[in-house]
Amino acid sequence: MLWPHKPSPEACVLPVDNDPGAVHLGVWTQEEVPWGIRVSDLPGPLLGACSLFQQHCDRIAVPWQEGDDLRLRVMGTLPQARGMGAGAALIRAAVEETRRQGRCMLWCDAREVAFGFYERMGFDFLNDMYHIPDIGPHRTMALDVSLAPQLKI
Description:
By secondary structure, the chain is α+β, with helices and mostly antiparallel strands. It has one domain (20-150): Aminopeptidase, CATH 3.40.630.30. The chain has helices at 86-100, 115-120, and strands at 23-28, 46-53, 69-77, 105-111, 124-125, 130-132, 136-144. Strands 1, 2, 3, 4, 5, 6 and 7 form a 7-stranded mixed β-sheet that branches. The protein is globular, with a radius of gyration of 15 Å. The chain starts with 22 loop residues before the first strand and ends in a 9-residue tail after the last strand.
């Protein structure tokens, strides 16, 4: 879904997927839905997923130190699950993991179509629009997880 230009699911594997410290999160439903992704030994149909990596934001100058941040990547939900809270649940889990690791910033390269979602979740823009080939317009966004009372999730 995220990379329709890729020839196969295997081509979507990131070199950092198995790095120490990589965390992969998913949201499942207990309901019987015909469109969820079935994965053996998991509690129900998968509705969405994301990954967190120990990668410092070096695209631009940021006001935090290396080691204070986690990078949110490859986040997505099935189109049928949008508006059901699956994306917000992923962000909540990502925030919890960021805090658990003693970090204060969660950042991502957000697609233009997701700007509104990330803004509703409390993320701020850090730069102007840039283009990623085969994928489209993006902006770097970040969430200070130490500002919990201000989170919009």
